[in-house]
Design brief:
- The complex is a heterotrimer of chains A (about 300), B (about 250) and C (about 350).
- In chain A, strands 1-2 form a two-stranded antiparallel ribbon.
- Helix content of chain A is about 75%, strand content about 5%.
- Chain A contains twelve helices and two strands; from the N terminus they run αααααββααααααα.
- With about 250 residues, chain B is of the alpha/beta class.
- Chain B has a single domain (about 5-245), classed as Rossmann fold.
- In chain B, about 35% of the residues lie in helices and about 25% in strands.
- Chain B has a six-stranded mixed beta sheet, with helices on both faces.
- In chain B, a hairpin with a 2-residue loop joins β1 (about 5-15) and β2.
- The radius of gyration of chain C is 21 Å and the shape is globular.
- Chain C contains 15 helices and two strands.
- Chain C has one domain.
- The chains are: A mainly alpha (about 300), B alpha/beta (about 250), C mainly alpha (about 350).
- Chains in contact: A-B, A-C, B-C.
- The interface of A and C includes residues 114, 233, 269 and 278 of A.
Chain lengths: ~300, ~250, ~350
């Protein structure tokens, strides 16, 4: 373990900025996770794979010569249909049942998708070059690739757009009604089938945006989806469903935690740190609740 | 006969809602007490507070002079204070006999008894109690396949299997075929007189509670508004007002 | 009852005879017995108790590393063995090999069991999907952490002690490991078969059907939950130790803490065969093994696609599993016939 970072303030600044920018991206994915959990009562283990798939769309554009930043438009459109189809094929049979069934089924989808992506895009680690340049702060001591800034800004814009859509549009209101009380919504004429399909599609689209941003700021690989799933799950647990500011803050907190872990524990333990944090949070909550004679539902 | 249950100035809040406010009551050992009140008056919440399903915000609850308000649910149950649930709780995939067998108190309860065999004598006791509640013919059926009313009877039998000192019954006749209600009343009286089990019963059926209880507590809006003998409660204006004239 | 005894004997005979009847498949069927152990132990939590876990693989990996570490570490400096090429410098004599092996196997069972006992209080206090995902996190974290420990080879992994050169050939080696796997499988099966007849079995089922009710009836559920996990950890740990020896090479994420393969398999096998029954996980493991060999042979390159699809299909369309399906179709064979009179009878209270 290396605590050097705490002795060099400028490193802490770097890590914090990196963490916050990264966290905003996590928050976007978490928002999608919360959406489907709240509306359809499913936990989507394949969330990470949807992100990576969305990323590969942007990467593909890069490979054929289109600037991958346009992925933030193209990817969500394609991913919406992917999500919608996935819903019609599999997810609709899982919605009314036990939460664990959704975990298992989406687990199956995730390993299926992983290998398909491996087949389609190969198993090399790739990145879509955006050539956005770098911003230097504090006399060149802190470097921020502009792609990360771009990613954060785009995430925030999409999050705001989505919130507005959910508040103002007919479909958005239908989704929120279904989340509160599916049976009542149905009786009042809401087509819950449509709502569920749209919700899953929107989630996939969000993952598409996030994925394209990841494609230009980090790396893509068919098998790195699960950490994204776990991160979004953690954020939703900490923030709670329906708590958008909480999701944003928790996302950023997680991002900062990861960046600091990188320095303290080393990059090879970064993923382990994320998963152990998950375990820690859940166990901590369990003990806190058991004092009140309750348990996490 | 001393007090077996002493509830002293108990408060329970859920956020801003005062589910139980300054509730004090004493149940004499060996008696049958009733807990009545309109829906939402805090009766089940009080039960939950007593057996430990949730902590209380203020006050004290003593069972056989032992403070139980901070004990976890299994500990309270082991002291001999059991409750049944309004929405019945039974082990759905097991058959009735197994539901009964696992409800009995183990002779030794430590790490080494985890893999102990359940004595065969319990089967006889289980069958006896099942027949006491009229479920003998259904003993091999899966508990989950029973009707709501039958599950209620099973739940009662399971509680008796555990040989409690006191039983909190949450609406024991709700959902039961009206023709069976007299039989239930008789059995509850028998349970109290012959087995010596103290009963505290939540009931909406006034006929039932008036014929069962020796002492009645009435809750409304989270507060205890009246308590006394059934004849007094029947005439108590506050009780009548609380129910808005609905019997 | 006679039917049952014949069935057991037939399977026993089959198991013993395999190395002679199908010598080419020894290793494969050894792995099949390992799968049965994994499936049976998963079912203790997942089927009998209703606590779907993704983390039992953690004990598998632990057992694997511990077994080999002891096997090597008792006689030679472990750190030097795991340094590259180090295993060629130290050679076990036959006595050393077998001593090390048996000591290793014992600790491969005991240490994971202790771990389960220690972390059980915290982890088993979680419910439902929180428990599932927490155990998933544990399993993956374990793999990642193991990949960082230099002593056991870090990301490169380590080799387990090779079979001593002057004791027979690879055939003997396969036979040796085959019988040990078979004995492990039988022990696990017989132990669980017995355990389910005790209080343990009923309490686990009660927890599955209504944990709150079990607590309200005075049952110390945590004690039983932990006991179950300790039992599973013990057998899974030994299975891991055996596997590590059979494969010969222990890699942290792919072989030891093999979440993506064995970790997922154990869940699917138990569900496929029938959760919550004694034979379900056994049948499921055998059926799954056949599927898997089929996928890996005919769909190589697409095997995980096929596996993923199988999981989705089983979970959605066939959640009761083979045993569940058989029970519905032939209830009389399972003593499940309910007298219609009993079912329709009205309750009478005189």
């Amino acid at each position: 373990m290396d605590f050097l970072i705490f002795q060099i303030p400028i490193l802490m600044v770097q890590a914090s900025i990196d963490g916050i920018l990264l966290g905003i991206l996590f928050a976007l994915i978490a928002y999608g996770m919360a959406l489907q959990w709240g509306v359809m009562n499913i936990i989507n283990i394949a969330q990470g794979e949807l992100v990576i798939l969305g990323g590969y769309i942007a990467y593909f554009m890069y490979v054929i010569g289109i600037h991958p930043a346009f992925g933030i438009i193209v990817s969500p459109i394609i991913m919406y249909f992917v999500g919608w189809s996935l819903y019609k094929l599999v997810i609709n049979r899982v919605v009314d049942r036990d939460l664990f069934i959704s975990i298992l089924a989406t687990f199956g989808i995730s390993i299926l998708t992983q290998q398909l992506m491996n087949f389609a895009f190969g198993s090399d680690v790739v990145i879509a070059q955006s050539n956005f340049g770098t911003t230097m702060l504090f006399n060149y001591m802190v470097t921020i690739p502009n792609s990360k800034l771009f990613a954060a800004v785009v995430s925030i814009i999409f999050a705001i757009l989505l919130v507005l859509y959910m508040r103002r549009s007919k479909l958005g209101r239908a989704i929120r009604a279904t989340a509160q009380n599916p049976r009542a919504a149905k009786i009042l004429g809401v087509d819950t089938e449509k709502v569920y399909a749209a919700t899953f599609g929107i989630n996939a689209a969000l993952c598409g945006v996030a994925g394209s941003l990841i494609a230009i700021t980090f790396t893509l690989h068919p098998y790195v989806g699960l950490p994204y799933t776990v991160r979004s799950f953690m954020i939703v647990i900490i923030a709670g469903l329906g708590n958008l500011p909480g999701v944003a803050l928790s996302g950023m907190g997680l991002g900062v935690f990861e960046e600091f872990s990188d320095y303290i524990f080393g990059t090879e333990f970064r993923i382990a740190a994320v998963f152990l944090l998950l375990v820690f949070i859940l166990v901590y909550r369990r003990f806190k609740l058991s004092r009140k004679r309750e348990y996490l539902k | 006969m001393g007090a077996i249950l002493q509830v002293d100035q108990v408060y329970k809040y859920f956020g801003g809602v005062k589910a139980n406010e300054n509730i004090s009551m004493t149940v004499t050992q060996g008696s049958i007490a009733g807990l009545i009140g309109p829906n939402g008056s805090g009766k089940t919440t009080l039960f939950n507070s007593i057996v430990g399903t949730h902590p209380i915000d203020k006050g004290s609850i003593k069972f056989e002079d032992k403070e139980v308000s901070a004990l976890p649910v299994p500990a309270v149950a082991k002291l001999g204070l059991l409750r049944t649930f309004q929405q019945t709780r039974i082990y759905g995939k097991l058959n009735c006999i197994d539901n009964m067998r696992i409800s009995a108190k183990p002779s030794r309860d430590n790490l080494f008894s985890v893999f102990s065999t359940i004595p065969n004598e319990l089967n006889d006791k289980a069958e006896h109690l099942l027949s006491f509640v009229g479920l003998y013919q259904k003993r091999k059926l899966r508990a989950g396949d029973l009707s709501f009313g039958q599950q209620k009877l099973l739940e009662l039998a399971m509680a008796l299997m555990n040989e409690p000192k006191m039983l909190l019954l949450d609406e024991p006749t709700a959902g039961i075929n009206p023709t069976l209600i007299n039989g239930i009343i008789n059995r509850l009286i028998k349970v109290n007189e012959e087995f010596g089990i103290t009963l505290l019963v939540i009931e909406h059926n006034m006929r039932v509670i008036m014929s069962l209880a020796q002492h009645i507590f009435c809750l409304a809006h989270g507060q205890l508004i009246a308590n006394g003998k059934p004849e007094q409660i029947k005439k108590d204006q506050r009780v009548i007002d609380a129910y808005l004239g609905v019997q | 009852m006679n039917q049952k005894a014949i069935l057991y004997l037939a399977l026993l005979a089959f198991g013993i005879a395999v190395p002679f009847m199908f010598p080419a498949y020894k290793l494969q069927i050894s792995i099949m017995w390992i799968l049965v152990v994994l499936s049976l132990t998963w079912d203790v939590q997942g089927g009998q108790m209703g606590y779907n876990t993704f983390g039992n693989i953690m004990f598998f990996g632990l057992g694997m590393y511990i077994c080999s570490s002891f096997q090597i570490g008792i006689f030679f400096p472990l750190a030097e063995w795991t340094a590259s090429g180090g295993e060629k410098t130290f050679i076990h004599t036959p006595t050393q090999f077998f001593q090390g092996f048996f000591i290793g196997i014992i600790f491969a069972g005991i240490i994971p069991a202790l771990v389960a006992a220690i972390i059980g209080y915290g982890i088993l206090g979680l419910r439902g999907h929180y428990f599932a995902i927490c155990t998933l996190g544990l399993a993956i974290a374990a793999g990642e952490l193991a990949g960082g420990i230099e002593l056991v080879g870090a990301g490169q992994g380590m080799t387990s002690p090779p079979w001593p050169k002057n004791i027979g050939d690879t055939e003997l080696r396969s036979e040796f490991f085959y019988y040990i796997c078979f004995v492990l499988m039988i022990s696990t099966f017989l132990f669980l078969r017995w355990a389910y007849t005790t209080r343990f079995g009923l309490v686990l089922n009660a927890i599955r059907d209504n944990e709150d009710k079990a607590e309200a009836m005075g049952i110390n559920t945590m004690r039983y939950k932990i006991s179950g996990w300790v039992v599973s950890a013990f057998f899974v740990g030994i299975a891991g130790g055996l596997m590590g020896n059979m494969i010969g090479y222990i890699e942290p994420v792919e072989t030891a803490f093999a979440g993506r393969t064995f970790g997922v398999f154990m869940v699917v096998m138990a569900i496929l065969g029938g959760k919550g029954t004694l034979w379900g996980p056994v049948i499921g493991a055998i059926a799954f093994h056949i599927f898997k060999e089929g996928f890996w042979t005919f769909f190589l390159g697409w095997q995980y696609v096929a596996l993923g699809a199988l999981i989705v299909i089983v979970v959605i369309f066939f959640p009761e599993g083979i045993m569940g399906w058989l029970r519905e179709k032939y209830p009389d064979r399972f003593g499940e016939v309910i007298d219609e009179e009993d079912r329709k009878a009205q309750v009478e209270l005189k």
